[in-house]
Write a structure and sequence with these properties.
Radius of gyration of chain A: 16 Å
CATH topology of chain B: 60s Ribosomal Protein L30, Chain: A
Largest interface: A-B, 30 and 29 residues
Largest sheet of chain B: 5 strands, mixed
Helix content of chain A: 40-55%
Largest sheet of chain A: 8 strands, antiparallel
Oligomer: heterodimer
Number of strands of chain A: 8
Number of helices of chain A: 6
Number of strands of chain B: 10
Distance between the termini of chain A: 7 Å
Chain lengths: 205, 160
């Protein structure tokens, strides 16, 4: 399955299942933070690998990135990107600390962020999995606080050994008038895409 | 402010003075420059992977260290650069997620090895490099001076 051959019906189907997936993730997130979380309708785009860093808001942007692999019946990557200030606010909310006093490099802060990655990815994948009757499990999260481009490199390298395009499912979530926001990206592997499409009755090959 | 040209991931660009070539946010990727001081012509490649196999399609050449550097070299020679006068620099090849390392070497380290190997093969001297670590880098390569300015989020900016 080549990403550029997806028709609009298939892209719609992907958007719809992602919508349900991120809905579950947002519910879990709001329970974790103890506040309401808003999400945008996911966008599904097929983009050149060279353009993915721009799609993530610019390669040089300083962010906290959480990266999880999808294991089980399908494979791919989940990437969560938080602007550095948002990650900071989120950690202080989770740890119930004053933002000025909260040390982002502490083991506790790193572990809290990883937990966010874990909960969002698990909620998303379990919703997707039960809808599609597939077993989908997230790997343990990897974290890096750095330039967005550098963080996404790893994902792109895995994709680009066989593709020149990436399928990016993106949604933005935010709480309290943008006080905290982040982006959720799903990048399925090319060979996995057909498994997902077949499960929704839109397979081609 | 001199004009700038952005070199995206898996691409390369050749430019003459006074242009600056920029690649943002390199992680395990490596930014490789070639410079002809006499002609004031420089090239910057943003490579992702060490080597393409025999079946690599030409459209994928700019991704791989070996094929991207050869392409950039032939473009520069076409502009009148003398291979014997070219000097190379490179930066990048970090391991952003050290936990992901599967083999003995991370993809960043393998990229750097491939770059070193290809310059040995082409007999082009490498004057400086800044590689490894677990931080991202942005590279600004000045086609007037041949200087490569490397900036990152939590480290001092350096010029090589």
């Amino acid at each position: 399955m080549v990403f550029s051959r997806l028709d609009s019906g298939q892209l719609d189907a992907l958007m719809e299942i992602s919508n349900i997936g991120v809905g579950h993730a947002a519910t879990a997130f709001s329970q974790l933070l103890g506040t309401s979380v808003h999400i945008q309708v996911p966008q599904v785009a097929v983009v050149d690998i060279s353009d993915v860093p721009d799609e993530l808001g610019g390669a040089e942007r300083s962010v906290v990135g959480l990266f999880l692999k999808i294991l089980g019946d399908a494979s791919g990557n989940i990437l969560l990107i938080f602007p550095t200030e948002s990650a900071h606010k989120m950690v202080s909310l989770l740890l119930n600390q004053d933002p000025d006093e909260c040390d982002m490099d502490s083991e506790l802060a790193v572990s809290a962020l990883k937990e966010v990655g874990n909960i969002l990815a698990s909620a998303y994948l379990s919703a997707l999995g039960s809808m599609l009757s597939l077993s989908l499990i997230p790997s343990t999260p990897n974290i890096a606080c750095d330039m967005a481009g550098a963080i996404v490199d790893q994902t792109l390298i895995e994709l680009c050994s066989k593709e020149d395009k990436a399928l990016v499912v993106e949604t933005e979530f935010f709480i309290r008038d943008n006080e905290l926001k982040g982006n959720f990206f799903l990048m399925p592997d090319p060979e996995t895409l057909n498994i997902i499409l077949e499960a929704v009755g839109m397979g081609t090959e | 402010m001199t004009d700038i040209i952005q070199v995206k991931v898996a691409d390369y660009k050749v430019a003459a003075s006074p242009l600056t070539l920029i690649s943002y946010g390199l992680g395990s990727c490596v930014g490789v420059s070639l410079f002809d001081e006499d002609k004031k012509i420089g090239g910057l490649a943003h490579i992702m992977l060490p080597k393409g196999g025999e079946n690599t399609e030409p459209k994928f050449f700019p991704r791989y260290a070996d094929t991207a550097i050869k392409l950039m070299l032939s473009d520069m020679e076409a502009l009148g650069c003398d291979r014997g006068k070219l000097v190379a620099k490179f930066a990048g090849g970090s391991s952003m997620f050290p936990g992901l390392k599967k083999d003995d070497k991370s993809i960043g380290e393998r990229n750097v090895d491939a770059v070193v190997e290809i310059f040995n093969l082409l007999q082009i001297p490498v004057s400086a490099s800044d590689t490894g670590g677990s931080h991202g880098r942005s590279i600004r390569f000045n086609a007037e001076t041949g200087e490569m300015k490397i900036s990152s989020v939590r480290q001092e900016t350096i010029i090589i």
